[in-house]
Amino acid sequence: MTKPIIGVLGAGLVNNSSFVPVPVHYCNQAYCKAVEQAGGIPLLLPVLNEISDVDAILSMCRGLLVPGGLDVDPRLYQEDPSPLLGTIDEQTDRFWIHAVQTAMRSGMPVLGICRGLQLVNVALGGTLYQDLRMKNPDHILHTQRQNRDYLMHQVAIEPDSRLADLLKTTALYTNTMHHQCVKDPGDGLRITARTRDGIPEAMENADGSVMLVQWHPEELCASEPRMQALFRDLVKRAQVYGIHGALTPRS
């Protein structure tokens, strides 16, 4: 079977390693490596000036990976900025939201990671806590300083969830690198995992075409091999989507 192309949403960065600063489009290599190891072909999707052009580039893809990154602009869920808000990028947020909504309208499978979970939730009408202290002032550590492949805290998974089926467990340790979390779930999403302090750690929709995790499984494929199942599932669903459905570019 032909390997499916998985679109990986990119972000902007200024490369200061040259003689002069150079703006670049990027994503962490770990995302692409995880997709490739799962049997897919990763394709970096840059943030374009014309937001509607996402339709054309998504037409080349059979699945969408929404990675980590900056905070989501609170204006997108009708809140004023908190003093605890981190760096935001409105252009990237709006482009990613349009990409997610376009993909979901066609039934394209979506995997959201960290910021990706939060962004997809907002794209579907959900809201966020701009900082974990607003959810639980006594929360455990969620911004680890250890290496990204270090298993930091335990997550409890709902036994009737697709996530539990994929990972073959209802409890496992993950890494953690976030200071925001879900407040109100978006349309069609339910929270399927939490840490013991009540912080949401995973979400999914009813048919399993949208899988969202707050941790970074792309960094754990060696230290916690069960995480590979998330990427294998995305690729498998993308193959089925490639047979039964495809996004038609706007004429």
Write up what this structure looks like:
The structure is a single chain. This protein is α/β, with parallel strands linked by helices and 251 residues long. The chain contains 7 helices and 13 strands. It has helices spanning 29-37, 54-58, 90-105, 115-123, 132-135, 162-167, 228-244, and strands at residues 5-9, 11-15, 22-26, 41-45, 63-66, 110-113, 128-129, 153-157, 171-174, 181-182, 189-194, 200-205, 210-213. The protein has a 9-stranded mixed β-sheet, sandwiched between helices. A two-stranded antiparallel sheet has the order 2-3. Helix 3 (90-105) crosses helix 4 (115-123).
Write the layout of secondary structure elements.
Blueprint: E1 5-9, E2 11-15, E3 22-26, H1 29-37, E4 41-45, H2 54-58, E5 63-66, H3 90-105, E6 110-113, H4 115-123, E7 128-129, H5 132-135, E8 153-157, H6 162-167, E9 171-174, E10 181-182, E11 189-194, E12 200-205, E13 210-213, H7 228-244
Parallel strand pairs: 1-4, 1-5, 5-6, 6-13
Antiparallel strand pairs: 2-3, 7-10, 8-9, 8-11, 11-12, 12-13
Helix pairs in contact: 3-4
